[in-house]
From TrEMBL:
Transmembrane segments: none
Pfam families hit by this protein: FeoA
Protein name as annotated: Ferrous iron transport protein A
Highest taxon of source: Bacteria
Annotated SUPFAM superfamilies: C-terminal domain of transcriptional repressors
Domain Ferrous iron transporter FeoA-like: 1-73
Gene3D superfamilies for the chain: 2.30.30.90
UniProt-listed InterPro entries: Fe-transptr_FeoA-like, FeoA_core_dom, Transcriptional_repressor_C
Length: 74
């Protein structure tokens, strides 16, 4: 399961980051660390970006990036 598959307000934990080291480093700087709890806050229309809640803030990701982050149901 990836971040794209998460239902709105469903809480999941990050289990794996993308294999691309540069992208993983950027995500780590934004707070997307392993075992971090994340919930989907908003979906933009027309396959636009997705907004996630983590660490008491909202962060938007492109779908192509969210597809590369594996999660597990907590």
């Amino acid at each position: 399961m990836t971040l794209v598959d998460v239902a709105k307000n469903q809480v999941v934990k990050i289990s794996a980051l993308p294999l691309d080291e540069t992208l993983s480093a950027l995500l780590l700087e934004q707070g997307f660390c392993l075992r971090t709890e994340v919930a989907l806050a908003h979906k933009a229309p027309f396959n636009g970006p997705l907004a996630y809640r983590l660490h008491n803030t909202k962060i938007s990701l492109q779908r192509s990036v969210a597809e590369q982050i594996k999660v597990s149901v907590s």
